[in-house]
Amino acid sequence: MASRCKRFIRAFGPWDGLRFYARCKWGHPRRLHSRKYGTTIHLRPGTSDQFTFGQVFLFQQYDIALPFVPRRIVDAGANVGLSALYFAHRYPEAVIATLEPSAENQAQIQLNTAVHASRMRHFPMGLWRRDGALAISNPYRSHDSFIVTETEPATPGAIPAICLPTLLRELQWDSIDLLKIDIEGAEKEVFAEGYESWLPRTRAIYIELHDFMQKGCSQAVFRALSRYRFSLSLRDENLVFINDDFAGTP
Fold first, then answer.
1. 141-191: per-residue pLDDT in tens?
2. What confidence tens digit (pLDDT) does each residue in 221-250 have?
3. Which terminus of the chain is more solvent-facing, meaning fewer CB atoms within 10 Å of its CB: N or C?
4. Which stretches of 113-216 are DSSP H helices?
5. Which of 207, 169, 43, 173 has its CA nearest to residue 96?
6. In this structure, are residues 99 and 162 in contact, taking their beta carbons and an 8 Å threshold?
7. Is the Cβ–Cβ distance between 106 and 131 less than 8 Å?
8. Which residues are registered as beta bridge partners of 75?
9. Backbone angles phi, psi at 235, to 5 degrees
10. Domain boundaries of the chain, sorted by first residue
C-alpha cells in the first residue's frame, strides 16, 4: 500500500498524488485533474484505462533517458492518449502524431490531449506495411487489445491503414525522433517490408512485441533492425532501440 501511494506522489506531487491514490483505491475515477500536467485525465470505468494509467504515470514505463530531445514523435497504438499526454508534458517542444484505429479510443485521445491540441496530429488509422484498409477484431474483450487484419475498403466497419512513409509525407517530416509502437501484433507487418525508407531515419523506438498474438513479430522486428546500428535496452514491457548512426541532437 505504502509503495503504491509513493508512486502516486512521485507521479503527481504530494497533494494530487494522495488525492488520486484515495480515489483509485476506493472508487472508480472518471476524471483526475492534475496540476502537474495542467489538465484533466479522463478514465472510463470498467475498461483497461486505469491499468494503462498505472503503466504510464505510476510505473513510468516511458521515463527513458535519451541522448537527444525528441521533437517529432509518432505514437502508434495511442489507445486513449495517456502516453501522448506524457510525451507532450515531458517534451514541450515536440509535435506528436497519434495513430489509433478505435473510434471510441480516438474520442478519449481528444479529451486527454486537448490541452496540447496545437501540438497533436491525430490519425484515426491503424499502422500497417502499406496503405489500405483494416478490420478490427477484439478476442480479448479489452479496450487496449485491438487486433487488426487486412481487408477490402468496402468491408463494413473497415478502417484506414497507413504506412510510415505515407504518414511522414502527411506530416511533412523527413525523420522520426521517437517512434512508440504498441499495436498488438501488427508490428510484424510494419517491419516486414518497406522499412528501408523510414527505419534508418528513426532515432529511437519504443516497442512492445506481441508474439503471443501474432507469431513471428520478434523475428520480423529483429530482422529489420539488424540491418542498421541500433542499440537495445529493456524498459518494463518495452524494447528500447537507439539508432547509433542517427541519435545526435535533432
1. 555 567 788 899 889 989 999 999 999 999 999 999 999 999 989 999 999
2. 999 999 999 999 999 889 999 999 986 655
3. N
4. 164-171, 187-190
5. 173
6. yes
7. no
8. 98, 180
9. -145, 105
10. 58-243
Would you state the cell numbers that stand for residue 161, as one nine-digit string? 491503414
Q: Is the dihedral of CA 186, 191, 193, 198 positive or negative?
A: positive
Half-sphere exposure of 172 (CA within 13 A, CB side): 0
Task: Give the cell for residue 118.
Answer: 496545437
Residue whose grid cell is 483526475 = 32
What is the DSSP code (8-state) at residue 42? E
Count of CB atoms within 10 A of residue 220's CB?
20
Distance CA 95, CA 11 (A): 23
pTM (2 decimals)?
0.94
Amino acid letter, 69: V
**Sign of the alpha-carbon dihedral angle for 39, 10, 87, 55:** negative
Q: Are 56 and 75 in contact (CB under 8 A)?
A: no
